[in-house]
Design goal:
The chain has 367 residues and is an alpha+beta fold. It is 53% helix and 11% strand. The N terminus is likely disordered.
Length: 367
């Protein structure tokens, strides 16, 4: 292998290793195409097509083609391109395609630039032994492809297949998590009519505040699910205490105050809920340190918790309780402002007041 080839191979590996595996399939595909076209610059085009539930191949990522390529969709039964785990070379793919495609798709090929392709190297993307997609590395020049380049493309196909598998298992795990969390919330709602819709509204308020603060999607996802399950510890509180229309006794109040710790204990044996434990345990902490259960103060309270505490209090104020009617939007916001620097983070409060004023009617209507 020559010096230039070695440098290209090293650059390819660096680019592939730099791709964030937490991104979407589309973003991952773009990263791979960029790495490949940099590794073999003679290939100035590329695309990735994935098969949907109906067996239709659709372009999810491309390079070197116009955006018209996204309209190039073909049924797996009509596709003349044979796919395997080993790269296959096709020349003048437009002539191969147009024998079986409609005039509309032929026009798409022309508009997108696919008709100009002279050589295509195609490799399949597999999951659990089944074809789920295919990647194309293409050129408008009539060039030869070396064995080394074919080997690299086969290796990249393996990376694609591993990534698709990882995404599938992640989605299955997320669904499993959602099902368990929602079952717990429904069990709570069956005991306490006040909580019906409360967790969902707190989640929606919290997510909107988090977005306004510029948090990333991982943090927003954690805030959403932490909000949904934040009151789960109330399952440990006797029903007569939850529904009591009069003032609680000191003993009863201590039972209520224990629900954050009880909630954390309920989820602590689920490793995948570890990331939301601070929200469950600490959503009654206060900025001035007078909250519970840990008496955390100021920035000792995690950022996501400080967001949820405002959303939680706001929804409590704007909802009917057994002992009082709901506050108006204006009254609730004035209370949030009054408690800024005492119960709530003053900087987050500034953002939250604007967000809550804007989204309150929308959230109430949705829930």
């Amino acid at each position: 292998m020559g010096l230039i080839a070695e440098e290209r191979a090293e650059r390819l590996m660096k680019k592939l290793s730099a791709i964030d595996f937490r991104v979407s399939i589309e973003e991952f595909s773009v990263g791979v195409l960029n790495a490949l076209t940099d590794f073999i610059p003679e290939f100035n085009k590329g695309r990735v097509m994935m098969k949907d539930e109906d067996g239709i191949y659709k372009c999810i990522a491309w390079k070197g083609f116009s955006d018209d390529i996204k309209y190039f969709q073909i049924n797996k039964d009509e596709d003349p391109i044979d796919i395997s785990e080993n790269p296959k070379i096709y020349r003048n793919i437009y002539n191969i395609y147009r024998k079986s495609l409609s005039k509309n798709l032929q026009e798409v090929m022309i508009k997108s630039g696919l008709s100009e392709v002279k050589i295509s190297v195609v490799v399949g993307i597999f999951f659990e032994g089944k074809i789920v997609g295919k990647s194309f590395l293409e050129s408008t020049m009539d060039i030869d492809v070396s064995k080394r380049e074919l080997y690299v493309l086969r290796f990249v196909s393996k990376i694609f297949s591993l990534f698709i598998g990882m995404k599938f298992f992640q989605e299955r795990e997320r669904k499993y998590q959602r099902d368990i969390i929602m079952a717990m919330v429904k069990a709570l709602e069956a005991r306490d009519t006040y909580t019906v819709g409360h967790s969902e509204r707190v989640a929606l308020y919290s997510v909107n505040i988090a977005k306004e603060l510029g948090l990333d999607m991982g943090d927003i996802d954690r805030i959403y699910w932490g909000s949904i399950v934040h009151d789960i510890g109330k399952l440990s509180i006797p029903e007569y205490v939850l529904m009591k229309p009069s003032k609680l006794s000191s003993v009863e109040y201590e039972l209520v105050k224990n629900h954050p710790v009880a909630g954390e204990n309920m989820i602590k044996d689920f490793p995948w809920l570890e990331r939301i434990r601070p929200i469950v345990r600490n959503h009654h902490e206060r900025w001035d340190g007078k909250g519970y259960p840990d008496g955390l103060k100021g920035e000792q309270i995690p950022l996501e918790v400080r967001i949820v505490t405002i959303a939680d209090a706001f929804d409590a104020m704007t909802s009917d309780r057994v002992y009082r009617k709901a506050y108006s939007l204006e009254h609730a916001l004035s209370e949030i402002i009054r408690l800024s620097g005492k119960q709530f983070d003053p900087e987050i409060t500034k953002v939250a007041v604007d967000v809550l004023n804007r989204v309150f009617p929308i959230v109430k209507e949705r829930t």
